[in-house]
Amino acid sequence: MPVVNGKSSISGYSGKAVKPIALRFIQQLRMHPELRDFPISGIGGIETWEDAAEFLLLGAATLQVTTGIMQYGYRIVEDMASGLSHYLADQGFASLQEMIGLANGNIIPAEDLDRSYIVYPRINQEKCVGCGRCYISCYDGGHQAMEWDEHSRTPHCNTEKCVGCLLCGHVCPVACIDLGEVKFKKGEKEHALTL
Predict the structure, then answer these.
(1) Cβ proximity of 46 and 52 under 8 Å
(2) Which residues of 107-142 are buried (b: 16+ CB within 10 A; e: fewer)?
(3) Per-residue pLDDT tens over the stretch 61-90
(4) pTM exceeding 0.70
(5) Any residues with CB less than 8 A from the CB of 133 and at least 6 apart, and which?
(6) Which CATH architecture has domain 114-184?
(7) Organism's domain of life (predicted)?
(8) What are the residues facing 119 on neighbouring strands?
(9) What is the β-pairing status of strands 146-149 and 117-123?
(10) How is residue 189 annotated by DSSP?
């Protein structure tokens, strides 16, 4: 803890860990009927252009970055601007304004999500750097479905244990894990999906 003249204090909560909470509040504020026309500023865990895009798509009109700059320097703002520019072009947006709140039409309560299927992870072994983060996260925070070959330093998904949470893909630092085979759960009727 920091010490100021022999004393300390318990402070707030910031950085990457607060991002899911911040996104939830941005979305809820944007959907509130009395606040729909007010500009909302997004803050909390913004470090990459992808983070910035998520805040914009859920309704933030402006963004604030503090902890990310403290950790990585002002250069991350340039990276965010560059990444967002490429994203806008790739998605066919003429401006950031077109993105604001666009994702809210697809936000539903968690209990209403379609859980009739599993999407197994697909691992690109050529991109994999053998860091083991997918294995550790799945083993300690998931369903122990990711198996690890110590000799080749490569992961493999055990589909008998996998529930399709894709935690492995979220923690992968080189994005070598993406959506793979789709399997409908036993007793569930197959239907069209948007992944």
Answers:
(1) yes
(2) eeeeeeeeeeebbbbebeeeebeeebbbbebbeeeb
(3) 999 999 999 999 999 999 999 999 999 999
(4) yes
(5) 171, 172, 173
(6) 2-Layer Sandwich (3.30)
(7) Bacteria
(8) 182
(9) unpaired
(10) P
